[in-house]
Specification:
Keywords: NAD, Oxidoreductase, Tricarboxylic acid cycle. Belongs to the LDH/MDH superfamily. MDH type 1 family. This is Malate dehydrogenase. One of its GO terms (cellular component) is mitochondrion. It is a single chain. By secondary structure, the protein is of the alpha/beta class. The protein folds into two domains: about 55-215, 3-Layer(aba) Sandwich (Rossmann fold); about 215-375, L-2-Hydroxyisocaproate Dehydrogenase, Chain A, domain 2, CATH 3.90.110.10. It contains nine helices and 13 strands. The chain has helices spanning about 80-90, 105-110, 130-135, 155-175, 185-200, 215-230, 265-285, 290-310, 355-385; strands at about 25-30, 40-50, 70-75, 95-100, 120-125, 140, 180, 210, 240, 250, 315-320, 330-340, 345. The strands form four sheets. Strands 5-4-3-6-7-8 form a six-stranded parallel sheet, sandwiched between helices. Strands 11-12-13 form a three-stranded antiparallel sheet. A two-stranded antiparallel sheet has the order 1-2. The longest helix has 27 residues, at about 355-385. Bound molecules: nicotinamide-adenine-dinucleotide and (2S)-2-hydroxybutanedioic acid. (2S)-2-hydroxybutanedioic acid (LMR) binds near residues 147, 243 and 289.
């Protein structure tokens, strides 16, 4: 049984009591306690559906049944804590390593009392990074400062670039084969920074580097379901481009189920999805940015990645990845990707075909902004001397 958080989730069907692996998958969320035996987990069946796109004839689930090690860097923060809890609940995870520069001991002790199988170990201070990262299958980086009202994500660059640099260099040294999920903003620049640093260290595998943009999809699904009065679990809206303002491009014309929108609805929904982060920043009034919805979204993306590693042949999520398959002039772009045993197996570039006039115009408009953020990240990393960790 697997913890499933995403609309495009597909996993072992005994959660739902379905007898056939070919049966339509269910989106479930887990409630309450887990006794240590995964069969005792409670699942809420929200709906039964097949994710986009349809499974190919050869798709199948070959479960390694978990045993994965996930490391979370920045685990004591606003995102890190609820994310750690959600990952502690995943039966796919046997080891959960938590790293932060503060407060990690308390978080580790607290989480360690949950009777789910993953063993939680806390690490703090640079000298502990090696132990935290050794053998990690997935490394998640939510470390960094969040926005306050009036700031853009790019305003975080000067602080977060250095944090991401330090942590990615440690991943290169101690967990070079892991999948790396970057949450720290500005994602449009921090992912290019990571790519350059991994190249400098000689361990770059573009299939294994991800900017986490799942929250944009989660928001788009929620807002579209509300607007069109659709069952939440039915809705799947691809969001492409990047993760800041106008670079966030929801493709409403490609939403599932097929839905028609007026021009006003497209404009209103697109603007809401693009500004949703700011909506939360303003509502928190200086208390930070999205943490709970972000933890939910990151858990969904981690779970999808683990299912890919585990051999599930039908896992798709949107993510900001190093690939020019979708837009040749942009070396990083958020697309729907197929996740497999080695990370990205395929970038679904076809999704950018047949866009509406509105979407095509928005895509053209976002390119200079996204390119500038990519170039800024690359330039930063190229000016940095690489540091080997002990
Ligand atoms: N990708 C997205 O969709 C998305 C969504 C929400 C927030 N974010 C970003 O995530 C980041 C974190 O947000 P938050 O609300 O959790 O912030 P937070 O301040 O609550 O937590 C950040 C944590 O990082 C830790 N940290 C700082 N420097 C570190 C280092 N060198 N090594 C390890 N840990 C370190 C801090 O101690 C803190 O615990 C921000 O940059 C925010 O903009 C991204
Ligand atoms: O808006 C932010 O600064 C945080 C995050 O990128 C979000 O989209 O919520």
């Amino acid at each position: 049984m697997q913890l499933r958080l995403g609309a495009s989730s597909l996993a072992a069907d005994h959660v739902s009591g379905l007898s056939s692996r070919r049966a339509a998958p269910l989106m479930c969320c887990f409630l309450g306690h887990a006794s240590g035996s995964s069969s005792q987990w409670q699942a809420v069946k929200l709906r039964s559906r097949r994710p986009w796109p349809r499974a190919g004839a050869g798709s199948r689930i070959v479960a390694r049944a978990g045993g994965y090690k996930v490391a979370i860097l920045g685990a004591a923060g606003g995102i890190g804590q609820p994310l750690s809890l959600l990952i502690k609940m995943s039966p796919l995870v046997s080891a959960l390593h938590l790293y932060d520069i503060v407060d990690v001991e308390g978080v580790t002790a607290d989480l360690g009392h949950c009777n789910t199988p993953a063993k939680v170990v806390g690490f703090t201070g640079q000298e502990d990074l090696a132990g935290c990262l050794a053998g990690a299958d997935v490394v998640v980086i939510p470390a960094g400062v969040p926005r306050k009202p009036g700031m853009t994500r790019d305003d975080l660059f000067s602080i977060n670039a250095g944090i991401v640099k330090e942590l990615v260099e440690a991943v290169a040294d101690h967990a070079p084969g892991s999948l790396i999920h970057i949450i720290s903003n500005p994602v449009n620049s921090t992912v290019p920074i990571a790519a350059e640093l991994l190249k400098q260290k000689g361990v770059y595998d573009p299939r294994k580097l991800f900017g986490v943009t799942t929250l944009d999809v989660v928001r788009a699904n929620t807002f579209v379901a509300e607007k069109k009065n659709l069952p939440l679990a039915d809705v799947d809206v691809p969001v492409v481009g990047g993760h800041a303002g106008a670079t966030i491009l929801p493709l409403l014309s490609k939403a599932r189920p097929k839905t028609s929108f007026t021009d006003e609805e497209v404009e209103e929904l697109t603007a809401r999805i693009q500004n949703a982060g700011t909506e939360v920043v303003e509502a928190k009034a200086g208390g930070g940015s999205a943490t709970l919805s972000m933890a939910y979204a990151a858990a969904r993306f981690i779970e999808a990645s683990l299912r890919g590693l585990d051999g599930d042949g039908d896992v798709y999520e949107c993510s900001y990845v190093p690939s020019q398959a979708a837009v040749p002039e942009l070396p990083f772009f958020a697309s729907r990707v197929k996740l497999g045993r080695d990370g990205v197996e395929e970038v679904v570039a076809a999704e950018l075909r047949g866009l509406t006039h509105f979407e095509a115009r928005a895509l053209e408009a976002l390119k200079p902004q996204l390119k500038a953020s990519i170039d800024k990240g690359v330039a930063y990393a190229q000016q940095q001397p690489a540091v080997a960790m002990a």
